[in-house]
Input
Amino acid sequence: MLFLKYMLLVAGIGMFVVAAAIVANDAWLAFQFRRKTSEGAVAVEPQPIRWRTTVALCCLAWAPILIALSIVVVPSGMAGVRVSQTRGTLSGTLYPGVHAVMPMVEHVETFDMRDKLFTAGFTAGSTELSSKDAKKDDKLTTKAEPLQVQSKEGLSMGLAITVRYRLDPKRLDYIQSHLPQPIETELVPPIVASAWRELAPGYTVRDIFSAKREEVRQRAADSITQQLAADGIVVKEVMLRDIQLPPEYAKGLENLLLKEQQNDQLGVETEIHEKQVRISELDAEAQKVAQVKGAEGNAQVKVLEAKGEADAMQYTLPLKQKQIEQSRLEAEARKETTIKGAEAAAEAKVIDSKAEMERRKFLADAEANRIRVTAAADSERMKLEAAALKQNPLLINKIVAEKLSDKIQLVMVPTDSKFFFANDVFKGMNPTNPVIREQVDPEDPPDGGQGH
Output
């Protein structure tokens, strides 16, 4: 919008310049014509001055200028109010942004809405601003000297104070129309100084300096806040940074504080000595009580020991009697146990002998039965073997061969074989393995001779 505003202003001014240039050009041509005519030279008569074109351009130039003048831009951190030439300050606050006003009749007065500081009295290392610099920097209003006030005793003292405040944006119309401008230098300093100077005489220097410092600051802050709030100024904080005491009072206060410190030191030392005496007394009483308690404890211990021994004797005698009775009963029990053990051992031996006899009898019966069963089995086996040998006479040779060494190989062939003793059968055999050839005559009995 600022660009548009400036472009409109440039366009309007440009039209005025063009209109002036047209009039100047036409006037110059007319002047040249008259000069040449007076000299007798022949010249072409120029056209008359174009007043209508010039007036039209001038009237047209006012349009962009008036439009540009009706555009007002309020920057960030600022606020403004409309001021009319006919009606005065208009109500309503213009916040940051673009606003429209009636050109040539209204204009906008802007105010800084950021926090400002009023400071009286510089701390060490700070610099003083001139009145010109203070007006340029509307955030900070300064006074080089501390604020001088009088205490209840009539002593003058300097206060280094700082007031942080800002303008109420809803009451800018009242501030513009009723308050002196700028308020940073014309309104705030007198009200702040007046509040402190009215409050200080109600307190002594000691109260303001230490005892009731926070109370004084709070009361001053309430008074300043109340007075400035009526004029549309919001106070955020009132600070009492430093207090400059009168030289004589400061010196006397220093001596008084030194004496008070000495008095406090003596009081502390006295209290320490009293506590030490009290501690000694308490130690003595504690030792006395400890000795008495120790003697009483020893006596009670001895009495308890005597009672314990008496009680022990009362319980010891029955206990001894019970032990003797227990020993007698144990001896009888061992005796009974021994007798019963001997009887049990005898009965056990009798039972063992009977059991041994029964066992031997059973073993003899079992052995006889085994012999009978074995003899019957052998008889049956021999019958079977006799039948088998009768049917297969060659089994005798097989049995005999099985009884021989495992290094002897046995070959059994029929007796009617024509090639049994043929040399070509055994030529390919390994000579290291001996072969036993055996021939059984079928007419010989089963227990006949054997051939190697």
In short: The CA atoms of residues 89 and 176 lie 7 Å apart.
